Amino acid sequence: VPKKLVTTVSGCADDALAGLVACNPGLRLLQGHRVVLRSDLPAIRGRVALLSGGGSGHEPAHAGYVGKGMLTGVVAGAVFASPSVGSILAAIRAVAQAGAAGILLIVKNYTGDRLNFGMALERARAEGADVRMVVVGDDCAFTTPGKAGRRGICGTVLIHKVAGALAEAGASLDEIEKKVMAAAKVMGTLGLSLSPCSIPGSKPSFQLAEDEMELGLGEERPLNVPLRGVLPADKAVETMLKHMTDPSNASHLSLTPGSSVVLVVNNLGGLSCLELGIVAGAAVRCLESRGICIARALVGSFMTALEMAGVSLTLMLVDEELLRLIDAKTTAMAWPNLLAGPATTRREEVPAPAEARKPQDESGIGTELLSLVTPPLCLSFPWEGAGMHPLSAGPGTARVQRVLERVCSTLLEMQDKLNELDRGAGDGDCGHTHARAAQAIREWMRSRPPPAAPAQLLSALADVLLEQMGGSSGVLYGLFLTAAARSLHGRSDPPAWADAMDAGIEAMQRSFPPGLSPGCQTNSHFSQLDSLFAAAQALHSLHSPGANPLEVLAAAVQSAEAAAEATRHMEAGAGRASYIRSSRLEQPDPGAVAVAAVLGAVLE
């Protein structure tokens, strides 16, 4: 049974409503019932009252839509269960006694909801109340007509909004009923699930294979229309919109070029906000390509199914009047407070500010890279002149390209390994971050010849990583390379590289938490320092007269590799690793491993 953060399984629906009311001064519970009402009930005197509801588990529906300009009250059932007739009748009586000029029940088309709300309506009418009921069915999943009709799902929230704006404006019960029924006929919704949900205390309601998505759902149960393979977001959205508007589909929504719609991109509960944004962008692009005007777009969690990973798309055809009702103000907590305006992927971008030209110093750092086909300086790599290194022949730029290509290939090959190592101490993305750096360097080399002068090269690489690598690692590498490039200014001797390494490490340390030093492993954000410091100590031998540069470099690589392996036994003192249950790791740190691999690739 999946874990749930509840106090008791039997009381979870009541506890959820109690928490909502406790945090919202505009809401009140109806004593003895699972009913939420507006706190300013006297304000509805002479106006039409709007009541809705259904099973719990669909939060923020339905209580999140109680407020001025939307619903007067809602009646909640247990999780995924229709509310009782007694509670519905109690809500009707409460608003009738407050002086409502008629009551409209907005009910989703499910058998239990229709039966319970319908029975309460008949009993209230027998008591003399002026009560009507509108049944909403917006599901576009059914390809053939069903006896029960289309189910009511997320589009019901738009009906709440339209009815609420009309009631707030003083419209009569007849007018609201008529306009709401018309709006419900030009609306459709379709859902897509990636995983099931589970009622507290129970197993998941259905199963999906790892390579399956399922099209079409009510609030908690798909229609068994599996999509083989997990589609990319744009293809999934295209499939959904095609099904929703296919004339051969009995429950389709007629949509023609030039139509104006309100789009709702609804999180079914377990989709990340990142994924939801991707889906929203894909939906806008797809509709625009079909000549549809997206007059408004609402993106968020409007009607969920507990923790189901999935999304639903709702479209409502709108004219100017409907749009005004959608835009009308409301105090309902779950309705998004957005600036009114259309959705489009064609918004003009804010121009990026022009980058100030860096003053050119003697080493050429900061010059325009496009002009650096031939480096202006003769700074050398420490192996040059030793007569031993395989890259000693050929133009400097070609040598640089070959070295960088080896570094990039190494990082890309290690991507999965670094991610796996990072899962023990971080968020499992160290490999992705370093692969992103490798791809950025490759793209940079394709766009222009890299400078062969070391100071210029390191400065340019720092810019690439700072711009493209991202995360803390990108900043740290950028700090290291920028300081190292500055140290190489005007020098061409092998000891310059040892000094450059020291300068880079010092720059990194200045950004670390106080008290952090080599050997205080911190996870892949800071642990590059351990391998770099070990290599720097070995490079100090370049200051010795007669030192063989290649032998010193080989020793530096070995020291870096040993330092990376030693992080296996260190206890994290800072960074993300220090927060996990056991900060003593049983595997080498991925950041230190990556640095050792880069140094090894340079020496090959």
TrEMBL record:
EC number: 2.7.1.28, 2.7.1.29, 4.6.1.15
Residues covered by region (Disordered): 344-365
Substrates-to-products reaction catalysed: D-glyceraldehyde + ATP = D-glyceraldehyde 3-phosphate + ADP + H(+); dihydroxyacetone + ATP = dihydroxyacetone phosphate + ADP + H(+); FAD = riboflavin cyclic-4',5'-phosphate + AMP + H(+)
Cofactor: Co(2+)
InterPro entries reported for this sequence: DhaK_dom, DhaL_dom, DhaL_dom_sf, Dihydroxyacetone_Kinase
Role according to the record: Catalyzes both the phosphorylation of dihydroxyacetone and of glyceraldehyde, and the splitting of ribonucleoside diphosphate-X compounds among which FAD is the best substrate. Represses IFIH1-mediated cellular antiviral response.
Gene Ontology molecular function, alphabetical: ATP binding; FAD-AMP lyase (cyclizing) activity; glycerone kinase activity; triokinase activity
Coiled coil stretches, renumbered: none
Biased composition range(s): Basic and acidic residues: 345-361
DhaL domain span: 398-604
Keywords: ATP-binding, Cobalt, Kinase, Nucleotide-binding, Transferase
Species this chain originates from: Acrocephalus arundinaceus (Great reed-warbler)
GO CC annotation terms, alphabetical: cytosol
Record has ATP-binding as a keyword: yes
Subunit structure: Homodimer. Interacts with IFIH1 (via the CARD domains), the interaction is inhibited by viral infection.
Similarity-based family: Belongs to the dihydroxyacetone kinase (DAK) family.
Pathway: Polyol metabolism; glycerol fermentation; glycerone phosphate from glycerol (oxidative route): step 2/2
Biological process annotations from GO: glycerol catabolic process
Domain DhaK per the UniProt entry, residue ranges: 8-335
Listed name of the protein: Triokinase/FMN cyclase
